[in-house]
Amino acid sequence: MQRISKLVFLTGVVVSACGSNADTSVLPYAANLTTVIGGKSADKKDKQDRYREVATPDGDDCVDEGKDGCAKPQTTCGDNGTADVLVDPQGKSLSVVCYPTGGVAVEEVEGNLSKVGNNTVFVLDDRDDGLDVAGDVTLDGNNVTLWGHGPDVSVIGGDLHIDKNNARVRGVRILGDVTIDKNNPSLIDCVIEGDLVIRGNNVAIALCEVWGTTTIEGNNSVLIENLLASSPEVSGKNTVCAGDLTFDDTDDNGIIGDAELGVELSCGEVSSSKR
Asked: Residue 134 falls within a domain, yes or no?
């Protein structure tokens, strides 16, 4: 299968800011949208009950997440920006992930992803048609977003390596391993069928399933509302968990049922409550 790409450039702001007046019609995500993961929904088992979507606040407004937090994603992502906010059950904001709406190229990818430049949003399609990327993917450009339409339809057939800073990966299934060697990346709404190894710092992981082992060697990792096949091995400092559970696919059907959910994870500084 050959790589099919459609390249579009957005101009208007630098990639570090999410908000802009640029034409966002070619982006796979909406502007002015914040997804709050965890927080008040941390006692729910279904994935769709563990997050909520709100309009990105403007000015000094905030997303009220309880007595211990009032998140302001616009501070880092800009007014009308697109963001994921990871919060603990008490409402404290632990990590903010910004998705660029300007200053980036947008490329639709199918078949393989062999060349990754800086400041690019790579988009996997929303069709349930098998592998979107046949082999391994190495994100060796800075400020790269790899956007899928959910792990049931957007699939990488090999391993995923994050080898540069500020990578954002959302809505994908990785059939192999994931290795993170650089800083400030995020993995949101994903399924990792192999192992997850975190060596970089300031990593955010949320709403993901990890079917292999999880190893955390980097510092300042935040894990929110994930399902892990085993408790992580943690040697990095300042690791924070909230709402993460183990699971055991006892019937070996590749689906995690409520009865297959296990204990709440402890991976360093735990900031969560029992479900």
From this structure: yes
